[in-house]
Amino acid sequence: MRKRQTLLPPQRERLGHTIEGRRAVLEALRAGTQVERLYLLESSDRGPQMSEILTRAAELSIEVIFENRRNIERRARTRRHQGVIARAQDPHYTDFDELVSAATVTGRSAMIVVLDGIEDPHNLGAIARTVDAAGADGLVISERRAVGVTPGAISASAGALEHVSVARVVNLSRAIDRLQDAGLWIVGLDDGGTHLHTDVDLQVPIAIVVGSEGSGMSRLVREKCDFIVGLPMAGKVESLNASVAASIVLYEAVRQRSV
Questions:
Q1: Where are the domains of the chain?
Q2: Tens digits of per-residue pLDDT, 215-246?
Q3: What pLDDT, in 10s, does the model give residues 108-117?
Q4: CATH architecture of 3-88
Q5: Burial class (CB in 10 A: 0-12, 13-18, 19+), 51
Q6: 56 Cβ contact partners less than 8 Å away, ≥ 6 residues apart
């Protein structure tokens, strides 16, 4: 591990991407992400997470640069950096067909989450964190009109995106056709669902479709769903945040599969 200090204004690096925050950076190192350089706040405390970050950086011969707060703030792309920024190679997306194949040969019912037009990186990150925690097989996102694996999403996932298989597809509708051909039932999540999430059999192989924050699922995607499920809403608000709703349905599937 090479350490140095710099007082020069940071320059934006054009290649690769950043991972920000202690937990996210640590999970990236644990997952074997190709980290090229670490930028650390020179006055950072040396708690357990920071100690492990430095240890792993030394083992992997990653350059560590200590910077003052002003330079760290200039370099950061999110507000969650906690004085820890990693410069890594571009995020690796899983091939869609490989994701489907891996999910259907595990000996247990597949569970994949499909995001239809999610644009908020914090929602993507939060959903990825639940996908990892619930033991789902992976995420499918669209290349168009949707957020990808960005620094903000990685930070919001607390590093979970370093462990979750994410496939990015050009045509979400065709991807759903492929999932159905592979034996998965398509469960759409929508405010106007015709079934409660607790009334649908989620023990079978499923793909849970979560629509965009503003308009929900697109018409074509909605028409391909085998079931449209909703959540009971007893209060004044019309709906839940997309990531919260996805978490509820994912853990209902976990509950059903554990009984």
A1: 3-88, 96-258
A2: 889 999 999 999 999 888 777 676 788 999 99
A3: 899 999 999 9
A4: 2-Layer Sandwich (3.30)
A5: exposed
A6: 26, 29, 30, 62
Length of the chain: 259
**What is the distance between the alpha carbons of residues 165 and 111, in angstroms, rounded to a whole number?**
12
42 close to 5: Cβ distance less than 8 angstroms: yes
* pTM, two decimal places: 0.78
Per DSSP, what are the bridge partners of residue 121?
none
Cα 91–53–33 angle (5° rounding)? Answer: 20
What are the residues whose beta carbons fall under 8 Å from the beta carbon of 152, sequence distance 6 or more? 77, 78, 121, 122, 125
Separation of alpha carbons 172 and 180, rounded Å: 12
- The CATH number that domain 96-258 falls under is 3.40.1280.10
Three-state SS for 32? coil
Could you read off the pLDDT of 192-216 as tens digits, one per residue? 788 999 999 999 999 999 998 888 8
